[in-house]
């Protein structure tokens, strides 16, 4: 293995591969920062160009974009409440609140350091644990997915500050939004109201940018000018460094987020988005002061930002060792490998070790580049907060609209985002949390598809669950979570 | 003097169309791909476009128009100006399957057919732990008890329905979002069999975790020449899908001929076969009329079968 890694670094040490690694990390950061423009779009755009490169170089470049994105996505989430990437949606909640308290630098600093740590854990995991973890991926069938998604949905009970009933309502709304598009089993359209643009479902970009970014604009317009200037940049240039207490509170969430994110990233349909949400819910559940969540809890940034990076790394295991892409981006990477005549899978280590180890070595280097690239920039970016909010609002609007439009070049998506902006504004005025809505929207489709696949396989029998310990374990965990949520709440009520 | 100019101009005008004909195409040709970059449709279109460029002498550029399960791109082909400068690629998915599932604004009458250049390969496999060695084993098992298979959708699932009809067996179709997911579920024993294309099956086949029972195509797979086709095993079923060029209705006949001959020539280049092979396809030429006939037949045959399986729009 050490030989392999050394071989990988040898492959990497050519000028061409080094500069491709740097370019990939840089592009990834830029794409991550720009809302709407995601890794899938970018990789698809660059794919034809990489035909001119050798396969190793092409994959180093494209992989760099993929894992670089998880770094850059945080920035606009914290500074403007616009998720730069789907995997940073959840960071909008507490990251932005930290910024409002003048801790934007700390939030970004912790996100960058946590991301670096989690990525390193993820790469080590890819290197050391690939074969046994690939078995775990195979052991997961439809029932296991359905049960895992159910356990994820049950965490919504801990997600919301607004109470179980309101959180439940938001979750239902999220499930409804997730079910628009094609029926996952019959393949026929539903809830599309004859609108062709809805056939592929509601994209997460207009949903997230609308609910979080555009609704914040309306919010800003509502409060008085003086009060709107709430975001304070740090006073010194080193202000992006977290305080001792913030750092201490972040250690455990980063560790948990790294492991959780890595495991979720392995699973098909999992990946960075799911990882970040689950980590947020887990941190809230475990926090000593859960009431701080939603009001700028550093754990709510540290955990998810670590999880989305580890999830990105985890997705490389099924891709490289099984030839199975676990999300849309790794599917494109698979396509890129195939174009170059590389067949990923169990045989790749024997046939093309230079690609396997070259990619792993480039991930180590890429992460160092990303840390060096991102950490000093935090100090620079935070200066943007000195811009008066009334000017900033116009910039937020422009970024949101361009971001939404650029994903599919569809005006319909912009209208959709505007609708979600109004919805998000109305919901926030009504005291509803947006977290449960987005979580249910993300988990719902996988839950439905897996459950219905499972029922087709078992011919409608639920008894099959008793023979499936993993699935049963997740279901019991879901029940325990819900029961705990209700009990804790009742106790709190008695104490009042 | 004036009269002479007039005559000269008139003569030039008489010759101009012929010159223009010989020179067509004068500018770049746009090919709409109904899916995003990086998939088999996109890659194979780019590969043949690269060859056709050299023959036509103008750039052939690819524009990806994904959305609506591939119908958005096909719709844009139908709506393009019929001057031959905007065409596109599609297969049975856009022409013969999607119209049964979705409301589409196009039909066969919306298109000018150009040649098809490649076919997809299909195969049926079980996991290594499975007792089945031949397609007959799988069919016998399916007669005795409930047997499931994973696939992404038509025409793969229709192939299994055809086998069921031909043999009296019963297979339960379990749809998966991607071929990779269907293969993974088979490896884990969650479904009994899988019918997909080579790219997603080869890694597991080569490592010995998956066993190919039959090629479901007309010919064997080049990677597994010892595994017979369904027909060779006595089951008269062929799963077939192809990719070819179409354009909007009303492209002038001479331009259709120019494009057809250019793509037919490009389809025979060895470089194309190489790239097609990596994505589980084989070069296979269908003349425009034949492409249209095959697509129409598939459309008429798939409709009732999909409706019977509860997988299509109700009329």
UniProtKB/TrEMBL annotation, chain A:
Membrane-spanning residues: 22-47, 59-80, 106-129, 136-161, 198-222, 259-282, 319-343, 355-382, 394-427, 470-488
InterPro entries documented for this protein: DUF112_TM (IPR002823)
UniProt key word Transmembrane: yes
Keyword hit for Mitochondrion: no
Classification via Pfam families: TctA (PF01970)
Name of the molecule in the record: Tripartite tricarboxylate transporter permease
Residue span, DUF112 domain: 18-439
Keywords in alphabetical order: Membrane, Transmembrane, Transmembrane helix
From TrEMBL, chain B:
Pfam families to which the protein is assigned, alphabetical: TctC (PF03401)
Keyword entries, A-Z: Signal
Signal sequence range: 1-22
Family statement drawn from the similarity comment of this UniProt entry: Belongs to the UPF0065 (bug) family.
Protein name (record): Tripartite tricarboxylate transporter substrate binding protein
UniProt organism field: Plastoroseomonas hellenica
């Amino acid at each position: 293995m050490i030989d392999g890694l050394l071989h990988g670094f040898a492959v990497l040490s050519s000028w061409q591969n080094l500069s491709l690694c740097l370019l990939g990390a840089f592009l990834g950061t830029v794409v991550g920062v720009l809302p709407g423009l995601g890794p899938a779009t970018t990789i698809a755009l660059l794919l034809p160009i990489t035909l001119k490169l050798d396969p190793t170089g092409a994959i180093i470049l494209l992989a760099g974009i993929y894992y670089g994105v998880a770094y850059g996505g945080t920035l606009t989430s914290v500074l403007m409440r616009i998720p730069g990437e789907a995997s940073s949606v959840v960071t909008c909640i507490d990251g932005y609140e930290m910024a409002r308290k003048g801790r934007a630098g700390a939030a970004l600093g912790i996100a960058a350091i946590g991301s670096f740590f989690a990525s390193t854990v993820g790469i080590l995991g890819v290197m050391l644990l690939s074969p046994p973890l690939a078995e775990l991926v195979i052991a997961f069938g439809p029932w296991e997915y359905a049960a895992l998604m159910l356990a994820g949905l049950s965490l919504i009970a801990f997600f919301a500050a607004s109470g179980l009933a309101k959180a439940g309502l938001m979750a239902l709304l999220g499930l409804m939004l997730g079910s628009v598009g094609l029926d996952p089993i019959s393949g026929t359209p539903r809830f599309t109201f004859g609108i062709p643009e809805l056939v592929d479902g509601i994209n997460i970009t207009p949903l997230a940018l609308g609910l979080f970014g555009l609704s914040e604009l309306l919010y800003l317009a509502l409060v008085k000018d003086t009060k709107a200037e709430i975001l304070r940049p740090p006073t010194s240039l080193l202000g992006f460094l977290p305080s001792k207490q913030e750092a201490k509170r972040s250690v455990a969430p980063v560790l948990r987020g790294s492991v959780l994110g890595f495991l979720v990233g392995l699973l098909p349909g999992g990946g960075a988005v799911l990882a970040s949400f689950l980590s947020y819910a887990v941190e809230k559940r475990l926090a000593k002061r859960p009431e701080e969540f939603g009001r700028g809890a550093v754990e709510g940034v540290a955990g998810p930002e670590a999880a989305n990076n580890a999830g990105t790394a985890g997705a490389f295991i099924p891709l490289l060792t099984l030839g199975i892409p676990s999300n849309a981006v790794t599917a494109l990477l698979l396509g890129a490998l195939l174009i170059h005549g590389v067949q990923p899978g169990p045989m790749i280590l024997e046939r093309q070790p230079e690609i396997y180890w070259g990619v792993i070595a480039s991930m180590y280097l890429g992460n160092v580049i990303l840390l060096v690239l991102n950490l000093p920039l935090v100090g620079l970016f935070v200066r943007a907060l000195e811009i008066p909010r009334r000017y900033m609002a116009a910039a937020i609007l422009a970024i949101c609209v361009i971001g939404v439009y650029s994903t599919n070049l569809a005006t319909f998506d912009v209208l959709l985002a505007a609708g979600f902006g109004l919805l998000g504004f109305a919901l926030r005025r009504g005291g509803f949390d947006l977290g449960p809505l987005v979580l249910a929207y993300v988990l719902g489709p996988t839950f439905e598809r897996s459950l219905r696949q499972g029922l087709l396989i078992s011919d409608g029998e639920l008894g099959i669950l008793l023979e499936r310990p993993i699935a049963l374990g997740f279901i019991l965990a879901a029940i325990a979570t819900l029961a705990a949520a209700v009990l804790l709440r009742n106790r709190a009520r008695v104490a009042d | 003097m004036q009269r002479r100019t007039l005559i000269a101009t008139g003569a030039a005008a008489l010759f101009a169309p012929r010159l223009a004909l010989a020179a067509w195409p004068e500018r770049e040709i746009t090919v709409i791909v109904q899916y995003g970059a990086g998939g088999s449709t996109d890659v194979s279109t780019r590969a043949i476009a690269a060859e056709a460029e050299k023959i036509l002498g103008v750039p052939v550029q690819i524009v990806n128009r994904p959305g609506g399960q591939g119908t958005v791109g096909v719709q844009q082909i139908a709506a393009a100006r019929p001057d031959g400068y905007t065409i596109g690629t599609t297969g049975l998915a856009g022409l013969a399957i999607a119209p049964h599932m979705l409301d589409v604004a196009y039909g066969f009458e919306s298109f000018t057919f150009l040649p098809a250049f490649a076919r997809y390969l299909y195969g049926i496999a079980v996991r290594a732990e499975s007792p089945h060695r031949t397609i007959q084993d799988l069919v016998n098992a399916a007669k005795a008890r409930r047997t499931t298979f994973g696939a992404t959708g038509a025409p793969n699932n229709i192939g299994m329905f055809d086998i069921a009809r031909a043999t009296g067996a019963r297979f339960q179709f379990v749809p998966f979002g991607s071929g990779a997911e269907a293969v993974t579920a088979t490896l884990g024993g969650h479904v009994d069999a899988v019918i997909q294309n080579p790219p997603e099956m080869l890694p597991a086949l080569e490592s010995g975790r998956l066993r190919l029972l039959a090629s479901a195509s007309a010919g064997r797979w080049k990677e597994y020449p010892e595994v017979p086709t369904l027909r060779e095993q006595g089951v008269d079923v062929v799963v077939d899908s192809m990719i070819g060029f179409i354009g909007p209705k009303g492209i002038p006949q001479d331009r259709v001929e120019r494009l057809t001959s250019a793509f037919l020539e490009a389809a025979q280049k060895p470089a194309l076969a190489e790239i097609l092979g990596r994505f589980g396809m084989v070069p296979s030429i269908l003349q425009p009329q034949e492409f249209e006939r095959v697509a129409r037949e598939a459309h008429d045959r798939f409709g009732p079968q999909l409706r019977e399986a509860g997988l299509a729009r109700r009329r």
